[in-house]
TrEMBL record:
It holds the Pfam family HMA. One of its GO terms (cellular component) is cytoplasm. The keyword Cytoplasm applies. Residues 2-68 form the HMA domain. GO terms for molecular function: copper ion binding. The keyword Nucleotide-binding does not apply. It comes from Bacillus salipaludis. Its main location: cytoplasm. CDD domains: HMA. This is Copper chaperone CopZ.
Length: 68
C-alpha cells in the first residue's frame, strides 16, 4: 500500500467532502480516503498495482477541484 497527502484547492463544505471521498473511494485499488477541509488536503491510501496516482488526481479534478 502507498499513502499520499494531496493538496486540493476549492473544497469548502460537506458536499465537497462527500464528492471527493465518494468518487475517489469508489475507485478500484483505493483502500481509504480522508478529506481535511481546514488543511485543504486529501489523504489517500491505495494499491499502486491496481491504480495510479495520476488516475486518483484525475478523479479529484473531474469533481471540479484542483490538485496541486
Amino acid at each position: 500500500m502507498e499513502k499520499v497527502s494531496l493538496n486540493v484547492i476549492g473544497m469548502s463544505c460537506g458536499h465537497c467532502v462527500k464528492a471527493v471521498e465518494g468518487s475517489v473511494g469508489a475507485l478500484n485499488g483505493v483502500c481509504s480516503v480522508k478529506v481535511d477541509l481546514k488543511a485543504a488536503k486529501v489523504d489517500v491510501e491505495f494499491n499502486p498495482n491496481e491504480i495510479s496516482l495520476d488516475k486518483i488526481k484525475e478523479t479529484i479534478d473531474d469533481q471540479g477541484y484542483d490538485v496541486k
